[in-house]
Amino acid sequence: MFDETQGRPRVGAAFYKAHGLGNDYLVFEEGDAWRASPEAVTRVCDRWRGPGGDGIVLLLSGGPPFRLRMFNPDGSEFERSGNGLRILASYLARRARVGTQPFTVEVGGDQVRMTVHSSTPPLYDVSADMGAAQVGPDAVALDPAALDAAGRLELESGERVGIVPVRVGNPHVVVFTDDATEERLLRWGPSLATHPALARGSNVQVASVVGPRACKALIWERGVGHTSASGTSSCAVAVAAVTEGLLEPGEIIIHLEGGDLGVTVAPGLDVVLRGPVEEVCEGVLTEGFLTTLRLG
User: Fold this and answer.
1) What is the CATH number of the domain that holds 21?
2) What does pTM read for this prediction?
3) What is the mean pLDDT of residues 101-127?
4) Which of 74, 101, 227, 241 is the most buried (most CB within 10 A)?
5) 263 and 282: one domain?
6) Could you read off the pLDDT of 46-71 as tens digits, one per residue?
7) Is 273 a member of any domain?
8) 63 within domain boundaries
9) With 0-12 CB in 10 A as exposed, 13-18 as middle and 19+ as buried, what is 57?
């Protein structure tokens, strides 16, 4: 999460919406229509009282590098989203601001190299070089004293769960099990995401290896909840599988509820995420709705 002392930016009224395997984001550009306060962001992301989405990607500069900030539906700001980045790339491609050559975005203090491999609206094939992943308690601001000798974390229920901490620009804890089920996700996800031993909270993945180059994963996103897909979560699962010796480095397919994403993990844990984006709509927040945001 971010220090709120850096202030919340002002945002334009126009938006673009797309999804990566059902994980959808709203892209806005900086402007003067409303301020991205926690309350306003929550209202805009509301699926019944706003345009709705799993978060907001705010474009701050014309680039390159294109500077971004990202916000969760609960109003909090976060470091990065793999699908959010890829959706932003589709927005830039739609407006012919990028072509098929790699370009750079800057988010959460990091730079990410991206490529739109093909653009045939409504579908885009986009990859993001997510950089080198980090593994271990320090990578996710986890108090190591909270782990037992087997690397398990005790939940509020008293149950102990083995975790693999991974950072892919944002924090993740991966739980490997023989069968990744929704019941297990709902049992472990909310408790792990907000565990007091994690100073900044965490995204959570319940995963299982289902082939020599594949994992199945279910996702609980920090500040969002149960989601059908997540780019950084897919990267975290692939990295965890490699570092735990469950899979060899190379290209790994992550089977998500919304579909499949490809993650390439190099021996040094450099990670590249690739998959589809589908555009949904464009729109403009009405003056009446903007008034409610300003009064909120």
Assistant:
1) 3.10.310.10
2) 0.91
3) 95
4) 241
5) no
6) 999 999 999 999 999 877 899 999 99
7) no
8) yes
9) buried
